[in-house]
Amino acid sequence: CKIIGICGICTIASDLGIITSNYVANAMGLVSNSWEATEKSTNKHLMREAFERCGDPSPRSIPVDGETDLSSLRLDYPIIVKPTDRSGSRGIFKLEKPEGLEEAVKAALDAGFEKKALIEEFVEGVDISMVYVEGLGAMGPCEIDCNALFYDYEMKTVKDSTVDITPAKGQYQDLKEIVMKIIKRLDIKGYAKLDFRIKNNEY
After folding, report:
1. Which residues of 103-116 are buried (b: 16+ CB within 10 A; e: fewer)?
2. Cis amide bond preceding 141, omega within 30
3. What are residue 145's DSSP bridge partners?
4. Of 197, 200, 188, which Cα lies nearest the Cα of 22?
5. CA distance 85 to 72
6. CA separation, residue 141 to residues 23, 103, 131, 174, 176 (Å)
7. pLDDT per residue over 12-70, tens digit each?
C-alpha cells in the first residue's frame, strides 16, 4: 500500500469494513480513528463499559459466552439478547420470559464473530437517530417509525420501504449535547450515526 502511494482508506455501506480500514490506515500513518476508538465503537460490550464509566445513558447489560451458566443470572424481563460485535441489528432477540433464553443466546453467539453476546434490559420508547459530522457537530434528529418491535435488520434491508423516517419535532438540544459527549468519549473522528430510544423525554 505504501509503495503505490495510497493517501486515504475508507469503507462504504458496511460497518464491518471499518475494522480493517482503520487497522490498515493506522499502520500506514494515515488519517483514521484510533484502534481503541475502533474497538469501542464496533464492540457493544466495550462501548457499554465506556458509557457506564462516564454515566452516559445506556441500557444495563450482562456479557455472556458459551461458558456462562445462564440459570444463575437474575434477569428482569423483557430483555434483549444480541451479539457483541454485529451491526445492522443482526442476531437480536427479545424475550418476555425465561423460556427460550438458551436458544436466543446460542443464536446470538453464532451470529457474532467473537462468539460473545449481551443480555440487556429492553428499553421502550420512540426510535431516534442522530448523525455526527466532524466540523459540523450533531445533526438531526430523525424519528424512525417502522411499526414493529424495534428497527431490526429486516426493517433496515428487505422491508425498508415500510419504514417512515421523518425529522423529529422539537429542538433536542440536550440530546445533541449527549451526542457530542459520546463522540468525545469514544474519540470518534469523521462521521458517526447514533441511535436512541426516548420515552417521556428520557434517553
Report:
1. ebbebbbebbeeeb
2. yes
3. 164
4. 188
5. 24
6. 31, 36, 8, 12, 8
7. 766 778 888 888 888 888 888 899 999 998 999 999 999 888 888 889 999 999 999 99
